[in-house]
Specification:
The protein is mostly helical and 153 residues long. It has one domain (2-152). 73% of the residues lie in helices and 0% in strands. The protein contains 7 helices and no strands.
Length: 153
């Protein structure tokens, strides 16, 4: 019972996943706020360090969801995957207000619209499908942020 409560706390990002009507958006806001708050503490994080952190968090997310007992394919209260997608979005980018805002908008766009192949990854089911679509949405958002920054000069 205690294990289930701890996993519920983790996979719902401190119960943010239970806040209606848009738990995924709230968890994404948390993710980008965490990146913003980490910047003054750690400074610019190199691409390699950010990449390694994102990979570790992705694996942690998959493990927690795999150990967690839930019903349905992708319950809306499981939002740790949104956090992982936010971290992937910001790998290699400075945590400026502009980058965070554009990264957030791009990530939510790709996570909600789910263009191919994101929708295909989501169909994997289980922890891999739950986390995989957000990771791919984060990769798309990361690349979109690169394009926006090049376009803006």
């Amino acid at each position: 019972m205690a294990k289930h409560k701890a996993l519920t706390f983790i996979v719902s990002c401190a119960f943010i996943g239970y806040i209606p009507p848009a738990p995924g958006t709230y968890a994404s806001i948390l993710g980008f706020l965490l990146v913003y708050c980490a910047y003054p503490v750690f400074g610019y994080i190199s691409f390699t360090a950010g990449f390694l952190f994102a990979i570790c968090f992705i694996l942690f997310s998959i493990l927690c969801i795999h150990l967690f007992t839930y019903e349905g394919r992708d319950p809306s209260y499981i939002v740790i995957d949104e956090l992982a997608g936010c971290f992937v979005t910001m790998v290699g980018h400075r945590a400026t207000v502009f980058n965070l805002l554009v990264g957030f908008l791009l990530f939510r766009f790709f996570d909600i619209i789910k263009p191919p192949p994101i929708r295909t990854i989501e169909r994997l089911g289980g922890a891999y499908g739950i986390v995989g679509d957000d990771i791919l949405a984060g990769i798309f958002a990361n690349l979109g942020l690169v394009v926006v920054k090049i376009w803006m000069g």
